């Protein structure tokens, strides 16, 4: 995956457009509902691009990214990363064109969800609730709500209908309009200024194994027609939001079937949410990058060496998968998951860096994952501002070299026995060690891995 400077340089030009008119009320929605999820830099980028649009116009003048860097007082990498976040949350679409004059971009701004859409979204509202807490969430709901004013029952509606007020056109007028029908629409190279409602975030349904789900539901006599497109969209979102497998999803669907053999979407959401909170000590999921952000991936070309393949693997694999594989296929406990989530949020470590941390901790502590030891490494790496897998691996090597040197130069009297630690293969600076974690499908048993590591350590010590 290319780094940011391969995707974007300061002299690249850009234009700003919008998918319809942006309203003043959108600023409040972006500030109070979106900013807690995407951060102030992302909001600043969106607002700056918006400001470049003239009033009631849909296109800006051409500018360079160097100007954008000066306006925001941030570097190009931060702009690129903020752009990706805006794209991911549905506020921006990006188009690029390269020719002999250079590279140019079009940034198309999309309006945020309206408050009702946001608070009933089923994903973004859950992330916001976890981020700001119950009291502030309730306050925001009040801020974006208004009291209903029901009409007095004594009032009768006397509104006239269209046909009661207006008469239909005469045949002659209709003939005239048919002859000039092409004059009714916008010009061929123009479009009317307007706005369409923003669509909620939708996870691709191809990411969920519906065939496996259907196989389980067939045994329970759930009719296939119950899985409508709307229901499938909700299932995909819930599976992403709460990390639910097809086998687990079957139970929630069975609990949401009503007397008409239809799946009640609200019951389905509630069942999934209650299950997740029960499994995670009444907590809700947080919005974090599941894999290493592209801006912090360092592999430029196709990986060739074993270490490059391992780096790519750590960059493209979620921490929970790495934890499970290093643990011999054992699912991480709720306490382990909580520790992982906390270090990613509290210390802002990217997922790829967390993957390296997981391996270092498990190897050095005989497969234990204690919070104190994890946080000591996480806080250290956060202070070093480590963002890439390669930087994390080098930091681990450097710390191990320092530890080995201190043992050599330390006093030999009254020393306590030191347990020999099983270290990851990539701790070998020579680069000759064979790295086993090349692909996600590797199913080597844990004992075989340990024996292989011990043999390599013997060769390395010689």
TrEMBL record:
Q: Write down the Pfam families for this protein, in alphabetical order.
A: DnaB_2, WHD_DnaB
Replicative helicase loading/DNA remodeling protein DnaB N-terminal winged helix domain: which residues?
Answer: 10-179
TM helices/strands, residue ranges: none
Feature: compositional bias, Basic and acidic residues: 397-408
Q: Where is this region: Disordered?
A: 397-425
Q: Which residues form a coiled coil?
A: none
Span of domain DnaB/C C-terminal = 333-395
Which branch of life, at top level? Bacteria
Task: Family membership, please give it.
Answer: Belongs to the DnaB/DnaD family.
Protein name as catalogued: DnaD domain protein
**Where does this protein come from, organism-wise?**
Neobacillus driksii
């Amino acid at each position: 995956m290319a780094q940011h400077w391969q995707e974007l340089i300061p002299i690249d030009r850009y234009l700003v457009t919008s998918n319809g008119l942006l309203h003043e009320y959108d600023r409040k929605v972006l500030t109070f509902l979106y900013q807690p999820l995407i951060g102030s830099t992302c909001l600043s980028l969106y607002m700056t691009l918006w400001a470049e649009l003239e009033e009631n116009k849909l296109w800006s003048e051409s500018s360079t990214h160097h100007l954008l860097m000066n306006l925001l007082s941030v570097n190009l990498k931060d702009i690129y990363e903020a752009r990706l976040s805006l794209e991911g949350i549905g506020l921006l679409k990006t188009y690029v064109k390269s020719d002999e004059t250079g590279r140019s971009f079009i940034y198309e701004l999309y309006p945020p969800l309206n408050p009702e859409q946001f608070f009933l979204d089923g994903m973004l509202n859950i992330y916001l609730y976890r981020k700001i807490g119950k009291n502030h969430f309730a306050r925001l709901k009040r801020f974006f709500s208004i009291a209903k004013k029901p009409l007095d029952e004594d009032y009768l509606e006397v509104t006239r209908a269209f046909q009661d007020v207006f008469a239909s056109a005469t045949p002659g007028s209709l003939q005239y309009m048919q002859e000039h029908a092409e004059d009714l629409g916008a010009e061929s190279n123009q479009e009317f200024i307007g706005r369409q409602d923003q669509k909620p975030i939708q996870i691709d349904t191809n990411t969920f194994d519906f065939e496996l789900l259907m196989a389980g539901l067939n045994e329970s006599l759930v009719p296939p027609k119950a899985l409508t497109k709307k229901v499938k969209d909700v299932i995909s979102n819930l599976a992403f939001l709460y990390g639910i497998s097809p086998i687990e999803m079957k139970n929630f669907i069975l609990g949401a079937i009503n007397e008409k053999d239809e799946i009640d979407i609200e019951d389905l959401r509630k069942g999934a949410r209650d299950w997740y909170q029960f499994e995670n000590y009444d907590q809700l999921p947080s919005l974090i990058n599941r894999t290493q952000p592209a801006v912090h991936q360092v592999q430029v070309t196709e990986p060739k060496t074993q270490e490059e393949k391992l780096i790519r693997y750590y960059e493209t694999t979620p921490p929970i998968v790495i934890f499970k594989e290093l643990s011999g296929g054992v699912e991480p406990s709720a306490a382990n998951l909580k520790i992982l989530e906390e270090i990613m949020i509290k210390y802002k470590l990217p997922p790829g860096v967390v993957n390296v941390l997981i391996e270092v901790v498990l190897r050095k502590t005989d497969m234990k994952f204690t919070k104190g030891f994890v946080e000591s490494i996480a806080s250290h790496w956060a202070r070093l501002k480590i963002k890439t897998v390669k930087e994390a691996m080098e930091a681990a090597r450097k710390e191990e070299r320092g530890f080995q040197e201190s043992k050599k130069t330390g006093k030999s009297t009254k020393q306590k026995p030191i347990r020999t630690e099983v270290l990851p293969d990539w701790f070998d600076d020579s680069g000759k060690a064979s790295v086993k974690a090349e692909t996600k499908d590797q199913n080597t048993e844990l004992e075989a891995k340990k024996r292989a590591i011990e043999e390599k350590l013997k060769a390395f010590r010689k």
